[in-house]
Specification:
alpha/beta; nine-stranded mixed β-sheet; two-stranded parallel ribbon; 11 strands; 35% helix
Length: 328
Amino acid sequence: MSKSLPTALGSFEALVERHGIDLTPLGVGTLQVNITKLCNQACRHCHVDASPKRTEAMDRRTLDRCLEVLAQHEAIRTLDITGGAPELHPEFARLVEEARRLGKHVMVRHNLTVQLDPHPVTGERLEHLPAFFAAHGVEVVSSLPYHQEYFTDKQRGRGVFGRSIEAMRRLNAAGYAQEGTGLRLNLVYNPVGSFLPPEQASLEAQYRKELLGRHGVRFDALWTITNMPIHRFKESLERAGTYDDYMARLAAAFNPAAASNVMCRSLISVGHDGRLYDCDFNQMLELALPWTIFELDLAALRGRRILVADHCLGCTAGAGSSCGGTTA
């Protein structure tokens, strides 16, 4: 199934077919769960359209079913918790604790400033998060659009860079990105405009030099992620009259090696309402699979046809892009 948008060099589906790429699922190694769209920020590039005004959140029954699925399937080794800011969900801590008790690797998509900003609903401050993450061996994945204040604040809001640096210092103090602790802090780079991210290794070296030298903070790895042409970013492209140009740029940079390693082949995304998707981006476009978490069947999922549309060009351009960085 495909929803196609016109591009200069053909649709995503046409490019995949032209290169003879097999997009059959490989299995489900990661359960990615979006537990809320509530966030303390409202970033310009956010494909989730998360903000302090969103109210969508996973209920207890659905969250418990996610934990049951993890317990029932040894093949699902990783729980990737996302949002919004997932820490704002009242059941967040229990989800982490129970998943770790089951022996699962837990990743949290943590925006850093949620440590310091008041909860949009309760006003509570979550300054305990670094210690909580460390106590449970959580892998922390945090977006930092650039290693300079101007570009980060331009994308995420005034003062975000400074608060992000302070939050990183607190994570470092809790043992993150420190030798011998095994506590991983990975940063995520999204371009601030309608262009592809630079080469991941060289940008990581630049981030490492600048953040350590200027701010004294450390991280383990930098993941580059292409801005997906959906929701807020798509709207900004359309306002600027550059949407077609951006899509053509993605199509021109199509990389068969990246396409063969897209994350949807080994991941399933769960929406706050329990519906299943091939990936988080499909979730935000409501390209749902015909099951919910309550009917999850790994055999059926492995035999499914992955749903694609032209936003998938963002995952296959250049070195590729996934929730774990480059794919080629």
